[in-house]
Amino acid sequence: xxxxxxxxxxxxxxxxxxxxxxxxxxxxxxxxxxxxxxxxxxxxxxxxxxxxxxxxxxxxxxxxxxxxxxxxxxxxxxxxxxxxxxxxxxxxxxxxxxxxxxxxxxxxxxxxxxxxxxxxxxxxxxxxxxxxxxxxxxxxxxxxxxxxxxxxxxxxxxxxxxxxxxxxxxxxxxxxxxxxxxxxxxxxxxxxxx
Length: 194
Prior knowledge:
Elements: H1 2-31, H2 47-53, H3 56-64, E1 82-86, E2 92-95, E3 99-100, E4 108-109, E5 118-123, E6 130-135, E7 141-146, E8 156-159, E9 164-168, H4 172-175
Antiparallel strand pairs: 1-2, 1-9, 3-4, 4-8, 5-6, 6-7, 7-8
């Protein structure tokens, strides 16, 4: 059983690497556009393309509202600076600056990076009311939002790692998300008054 888990993790990692290479090639083409180019358009690919690009777990989570195992997912304890984007469309969702350890075993955030890229709806799949979080453009199931988070929002966006791709702050320009790079630059010290 232990070997099956290792094989499954290795398969998911290989699929993520292939998807990242494909996405990097696409964003390199997009980043060649002039600085005044219009905002990136995020589009949901066809179902057959999604199935081809995603691992079975990523597909089940994003397209069929599945939930990954807590504490056994790629981003629950990621502390690297950067942003999280929809694994299907690439639309920016969350920032590491708003990520915190909720103790749940899933990546949790206090707020979305781009509120326009998030949609919510109430579901009752488990017999009680929850607020589901979906991406706006790809309509990917991401997770749920709860009102038990820390300040300043009091919200806990409890997301599935399988629904997201992490882009390190050092790679934002290369990946086509350069507009978010200033968020991770050190702030200049305040000038002392005389």
